[in-house]
Amino acid sequence: MSKFSSEGRGIQDPRSSTFIANLDELESGQKAKKRPMQLNAQTCVLRLDELTEADQGVDGLPVEAAPQPMQVASRMIVFFGPKGGTGTTSTAVNVGGALARFQRNTVLVDMDLQLGAVPVCLDMKPERSIAELVLESVSNNGGPLQSGLDKHQSGLHMVAQSDRMEELAEITSARLPGFFEALGQSFEYVLVDGLRDFNDHAVTVMDLAHKVVLVCTQDVPSVRASARSLRLFRRLGYGPDRIKVVLNRYQKKADVTLEAVHNALGQPVDAVIRNDFRMMILALNHGVMVSDVKPGCGLAKDLDALAALLADENEAERRGGFFSKLFGRG
Ligand SMILES: Nc1ncnc2c1ncn2[C@@H]1O[C@H](COP(=O)(O)OP(=O)(O)O)[C@@H](O)[C@H]1O
Ligand SMILES: [Mg+2]
Questions:
Q1: Is 218 in the pocket of ligand 1 (CB under 6 A)?
Q2: Which residue from 280, 294, 297 has its CB within 8 A of the most atoms of ligand 1, so it is best to mutate?
Q3: What is the pLDDT of residues 208-254, one digit of tens each?
Q4: Which DSSP state fits 190?
Q5: What is the pTM of this model?
Q6: Can you give the residue ranges of every domain in the chain?
Q7: What architecture is the 75-326 domain classified under in CATH?
Q8: Residues 30-83 pLDDT 10s
Q9: Residues with beta carbon < 5 A to ion ligand 2?
Q10: How far apart are CA 330 and CA 326, in angstroms?
């Protein structure tokens, strides 16, 4: 517990240069060993295996009990990108779009408060900021948010801070549970993008979530950051049912194979999304969903399948697999 701040469960100062060292210490109880890495196509799979063995050392360390996820009828899903550029935002936006397309009342919250990319990906300018809505949830005691939120043409709602930096101090970890509870009163699905570390805000939000979707790609830095994140999730007490691993930009012939990723992470990949840069960038550049650019294309199918997977588990508990029927999978 000593590595966590007294305020919350997050790590104290993510901006300090000791942040990574702290993570290593947290995981292993000692300073991380420096491993020389010579990366090339021939060696990287092997190196990944080596990395995995070293990474097993976390077992035996105390695991914190995770608080129960949010106790409302809605479902909260965090998209977590431990390494930038793996496509976390693209995935979150398109899963949100798919849920909205299937008439699920869905909001996507951009918790990257300073440089969040969700508004740009949706080509929208947020009318209401997160800080404003956080304050509304305080005065409202966690009741449903009253006034209209920004809505994309796909039907997906969006909440972001935009460039209103002067309001950032209003967004405290202590206020976040009430804010998400308020969103949970108004939406069936509350998706969160923009988290990529273990500071107080991030851990507070992930503690509330029913699912944390870790978005990884087939390269050593991303797999390594993912393996590290999975260990930290375990330390935070998140069980396997709470974590989903998505392999984005999947290519069958990549140097780092799907199997190597399995091995390095010590758990299976739950879903893959194919690599289709042209299609994804076309959608992002126009502020629309992949399924709007080319309905039924392979990339759109993969993104829909992920939406179905995430929704199905939730809806199975409540409604008997609406998405399974929709996709003809049972
Ligand atoms: N499945 C995919 N295939 C090809 N390119 C992708 C895919 N997903 C994302 N990208 C590209 O990766 C880049 C980074 O995506 P982004 O969603 O901003 O990543 P992150 O949020 O993890 O930093 C973007 O240029 C996007 O077009
Ligand atoms: Mg992002």
A1: no
A2: 280
A3: 999 999 999 999 999 999 999 999 999 999 999 999 999 999 999 99
A4: E
A5: 0.84
A6: 75-326
A7: 3-Layer(aba) Sandwich (3.40)
A8: 443 433 333 333 333 434 444 444 444 444 556 777 777 777 678 999 999 999
A9: 88-89
A10: 9
